[in-house]
Prior knowledge:
alpha+beta, 2 domains
Amino acid sequence: MSAATVSLEAYAAAINSSFEGYPVQITFSAPMLARRVRFEQHDLECSLLAFDGDAPIGMAGLAIRGVRGWVSGFGVVPAWRRRGLGRRLMSALLERARASGLRQLSLEVLSENTAARRLYEGAGMRVVRDLLVLDRPADYAMRGGAPKEAPTGELLRYYRRLHPEPPAWQRELSSLLAADLRGFYVGDRRRPSAYALAGYSRADGNTYLSDLAAADAADAEEMCAALDGLSGTMRVVNEPERGPFAAPLLAHGFAEVLRQHEMWMEL
């Protein structure tokens, strides 16, 4: 059944129950889900729910940008796991994706979730790179003053020039343009050598670095040093391991807390 046939409240509840017992707690409310739908371009018509009678037992979300698709969520409630429902859901999702004219499909899976990885590999997906989730604690010793600020829209003019490694889906330009973020930069404001976009989450009290952009590791190091002047808990989600920021972040108080495999397939 299409997720568009139920309310956002019901869809959020189905996602939460499908991720029960997952290593990372997933708890969506309808407003939180609406925000994600808008930022990440979820296609509710193409996203799927599985039911046993009136009870949702699994979900497969699909986001669409042009001819590319991204699995925005995929889960099965505990009582229905290891019974073949995941394979059937994945097959139905691929059918929807192809019927929508998509040519590529991607997703992220926790590195420790070997069962899910096998499911996706069985469907034809392959790991293309690792993405890191990094945290900096609230008691990190601040150094220096606050970094230079500029409007987000101004800094995003340099998005393509300053991303030698393609960002993950949630950090692509269309997501950033829809968000309310503070912009920081180093170098000349008329042509910054690096920038960072940050947003505060009232839900968990973290400041999220939603975009980190630099042409090379030296400029990334300068940006991370400037961020030393910001206080509070910080989190970076899905930072490419082979990008210019991975090592400088670790050198400036961040620690790896999760690792995800990004997987792709041609349709």
